[in-house]
Amino acid sequence: xxxxxxxxxxxxLDNVSVSIEKGEFVFFxxxxxxxxxxxxxxxxxxxxxxxxxxxxxxxxVTSMRxxxxxxxxxSIGCVFQDFRLLPNRTAYENVAFALEVxxxxxxxxxxxxxxxxxxxxxxxxxxxxxxxxSGGEQQRVAVARAFVNRPLILLADEPTGNxxxxxxxxxxxxxxxxxxxxxxVVMVTHDSNIVNQMRRRVVEIxxxxxxxxxxxxxxx
Amino acid sequence: MRIKYVLSEVLVGLWRNVTMTIAMIITMAVxxxxxxxxGLMYKQVGDxxxxxxxxxxxxxFLKTDVTEQQRTxxxxxxxxxxxxxxxxxxxxDEAYKTFKEMYQDAPDLVNVxxxxxxxxxxxxxxxxxxxxxxxxxxxxxxxGVDVIVDQSRLLDKIFNVLTAIQxxxxxxxxxxxxxxxxxxxxxxxxxAYSKRREVAVMxxxxxxxxxxxxxxxxxxxxxxLIGSLLGLIxxxxxxxxxxxxxxxxxxxxxxxxxxxxxxxxxxxxAGVGGxxxxxxxxxxxxxxxxx
Lengths: 220, 291
Known about the structure:
heterodimer, A: Rossmann fold, two-stranded antiparallel sheet, 8 strands, globular, B: Alpha-Beta Plaits, 2 domains, four-stranded antiparallel β-sheet, 73% helix, elongated
């Protein structure tokens, strides 16, 4: 597929074709502006390619109408570099919020949220506010929020970008654990340490083109 | 839970930006009052037209030297005219009697005027009062006819004034509505900005569009409804003050405004207020949140 943003001199993604199997763990690596984040945006149906198709969970989302987007998003979890937590809600409330706004009852939240917070290793810190948590703990809340709805795919856009190396490793262990439950994990990063340690499939992008696609790869 | 969530968001939203909310409600109220007033005026003018035009007469005054023959001819012609509903002949004595009644406060004038001075006349009721012009053209040249006077001409002038006032009220309503609209758009933008984090998360986790939009749209609708309620109160106050107070002298001329008419205006005002607010909020969100 190809994506050219208006006013850009060259395509952000140029004739890129990549296929990710269910249950895989894939790194997209490459320098800033190489087009990694555009892939995430396409998987989220935030931008559409100019040419080619995007197929997610067996469904062609290229021409999906925007009113179908909310329901589609429920099958995808998302984690970002900047956590994107709500500062005036506790860890518990942040995760419960994601459930409640898609129509789940409070009773469901009461049952599921403590479970998932336990899974990400935040048992006992449910009622802390984001500013009372460390960066790593905040990212755990974000992962819990992304995973609480048991999505088929977890997208992570530089989830360790704001964290120190040790904390980053912990977050990676968490993502690995989530991957073992059968969830496909797609992670964009330029953290070479992590890529080298994990030894998972690596897709390297440069100037909008795939220059390497390697199972059990390393960085650079 | 979701309904409760949406409602509490609405209240929080209105309160967070309370000065803007008040400004929005006031402009909305003024605009809707104008709309209600012009609606009442429309109904009122309609009622008055029915009332007055039903009783309106065209008078054909005869020359003092009219002959018996001319009068009989005219009488026959009028009675055969399809435009004319009723014909009443008024002779000099009857004219004098009416004259005396009309000017009973001015005995000097009554003393000077003798029955002979007053012209005989035919009083016509027309099938359709607006066809006065045809009657005029047809009978103006007839022998023995002096002048033809149409009361509805006078009424037209009064109604023109009333219609003009009604149009001014309507124009004011439209101008205020535009101001209210812009305020709604601004309020919604501020509200959406202050909740941008929540909205971003909701979009990310796949909350449905209506669920994201509902609190904002309802916020505008609530403001619109409060505005229309204030408008209703303003109309009630206006009726009390004007028609029981300063305009009481005109009571005979203006047909009274019914309470029921005022309350009938409320659904119109609330409907217009609510719908316009909702539509504005929704369009604003489309542009601002892209949901």
